[in-house]
Structures are given as C-alpha cells and as structure tokens.
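Hey, can you fold this one?
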Amino acid sequence: MKSLEGIDTLLMYETGSKVDLVRYGCLRSIKVVGKQLVFKFEEKGTFLRTVVEEFAGRLGIRSSWELGTTHWAVKDGGIPKAMRAKLKPSYDVVFSFAGEDRKYVKRVAAYLRAKDVRIFYDEYEEVDLWGKDLAEHFELVYSRSGQYCVMFISKDYVNKMWIRHERRVALSRALKEQGEYILPARFDDAEVPGISPTVKYIPLAAMSPAKFGRSF
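Sure. Predicted structure:
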C-alpha cells in the first residue's frame, strides 16, 4: 500500500452518477481500519469526465465496465502530457469582486497565498487565462473549481457585467448544494440580488486585509 502513495491518481464516480468532474492528485496515509481501507487525498486539480474518456485508452481503461463499476485499479504509465494540459486547478477559495475594490482584495490574496491557501485571484491566472473564452472559463471556476466563493460586496460590485455572470454561476451552485459555498464580505450595505440580508457576512469597512485573511 505504501508504494501507491504519491503516484498519479484519479478519483471518479461511476457512469450514471451525474458527477462530471474527476479529481486528480495522489493518495497519502493509506491504512486498514477494521474492514475499511482509508486514505487521505491530496488534490491537485480536476478533469472533466469527458477528458478522461477521451484518453481512456492511453490510461489503460479498456472497457466500459471500468467506467461503470466501483473498484481500485493500478495502471502502468502516467497521465499523458496532452491530458495534463486540460487539467483544471482546484482552489480552496475563489474571489468575486469589483475592480474598484482591487487594492484591498489584492492584499487579501497576497496574505492568503503566503499562507499556502489555494485561491483564484485573476492577476495570478493571467497566463492560464490567455486566449480562453472567459465566459466559459469563469463558469467552470465559479461553479466547480473552488470549495468556497468569497463575494466582496460593494455598490460597485452590483452592476458589473462580468460580476453578474460570476454571481449567477456561484448562486446556482449554492442552490444545488444547499451548503455554505458563498461567503459574503461587505464594504457597504449594497443589496445584491440572490443574497439574503439574513446571511451572515463579514464587515470590511474597519478590517485590514490581513485581519480578514486570518478569518480563513
């Protein structure tokens, strides 16, 4: 079991589960507890299921049985370079904010990055965003790629075109999961469509970026 730790690993659901993301990373701390085999998973990113199906042959997945049945399998080789190019990073948190509030948000991003928190902050993604269809990419980011979405709410935040797109996608995910995906942080009392005024938020007016960063 020790020899399985650290090697390229894909975790995916069976065909028909309606979960279209495949987690990519490696296994850690594999051990037997009673009759169960347990492990920790160090996630490095995700693939769309269609990408895994596209490269199934090169991954050694030779039958529909393997895609439709829960099991472990160890394959020769690794993840093809062309497949790695389609890897989507996974983030602990994704940021949604207005450009007018960038100075504050940038300092929060720098603080969290120094603490090894995985964040989606657009200035850190410029190379990856180059040439992409941003509407499509941001839909992926705000619907699938983060554990949480921090909305930095202000009067400038409410009416921006790109932000409306980000917010719509994030709210759709929150509705589906019925969990605490959206974490509001407010510069002022601007009303945001879809965000109930009863949802607990963090007020930013008198809070430094570092202090806010320590909230995570």
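The mean pLDDT is 89. Let me know if you want another pass with a different chain boundary.
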